[in-house]
Amino acid sequence: MISRADLERLLAEDVPAGDLTTDALGIGDRPGRMVFAARHDMVLAGVEVAAKMMDGLTVVLHARDGDQLSAGAPILEARGPAADLHRAWKAAQTLLEILSGIATATRAVVDAAAPVPVATTRKTVPGARALSQLAVRAGGGILHRHGLSETILIFDEHRLFLAGESLGEIAKRLRRTQPEKALAVEVSTIDEAAEAAVAGFDVVQLEKFTPEAVAELVARLPERGRRARLAAAGGINPNNAAAYVSAGADLLVTSWPYTARPRDVAVTFAAD
User: Fold this and answer.
1) Sign, Cα dihedral of 111, 112, 117, 122
2) pTM higher than 0.85
3) CB 82: neighbour CB atoms within 10 A?
4) Which of 101, 208, 220, 244 has its CA 20 to 30 A from that of 3?
């Protein structure tokens, strides 16, 4: 959820004390319009947020988040005073470009992994998580974790404080203290993964396993361990996603879309 205060902060970065150029030229009250369009093929994300940044303008949306756009396809048109057009222009354009880059990258992994779901991590730029996750959803991905308050995921960094407790003992402890929550644990070896699955964890996150290691684990799991969902994580991208799916992963976990190159959005102005 992007609040009004969040939108104001996005605009304030670019216009902290007014638009000096537009004010100096004395053109702020003159009417005009600007049109945003995809410069290249892209999956659109952030268009409704961009529209809300255009206070004082009349905005018409030509596309929605999640739409696959071809080069040249219109995204939105805004009309109103030049001061309001210039206030929103670059901030909205940059937002659309960055979020559409994430959405387009997410869609590439999702398509490669189908029908297995693709979840993105919480490794976003601090302060930009809600926007990044909006883009992931537009690209067809799901969210691995909104944050530490949402899910239980045991790392080695937790286990080192547990004085050598086995995975089975840890699972029992968590079933007592958080009986309504699904339990996940990250592991780095096949033996550890097999132990976690049998111990009763709902999700076993396979950190930097190769597809071959995932396949070996699947073959080794006893029947009672196969109730656990296997999440392949670390280095997942469109080039290897299908291999992990073929190996038997139930879920792919990735941060790769967050580093995607922005998708160019063309903006054209006209005076009315």
Assistant:
1) negative
2) yes
3) 21
4) 101
**Mean pLDDT across 194-203:** 94
CATH 3.90.1170.20: does it fit domain 4-104+261-271? yes
- The 10s digit of each residue's pLDDT in 9-46 is 888 888 888 899 999 999 999 999 999 999 999 999 99
Superfamily of domain covering 110-259: Aldolase class I (3.20.20.70)
10 Å Cβ neighbour count for 175?
Answer: 12
| Domain layout of the chain by residue ranges | 4-104+261-271, 110-259
pLDDT(225) > 70: no
Taking the CA atoms of residue 174, residue 180, residue 182 and residue 187 in that order, the dihedral angle to the nearest 10 degrees is: -10
* Cα distance between residue 39 and residue 264, in whole Å: 5
- The pLDDT value given to residue 83: 96
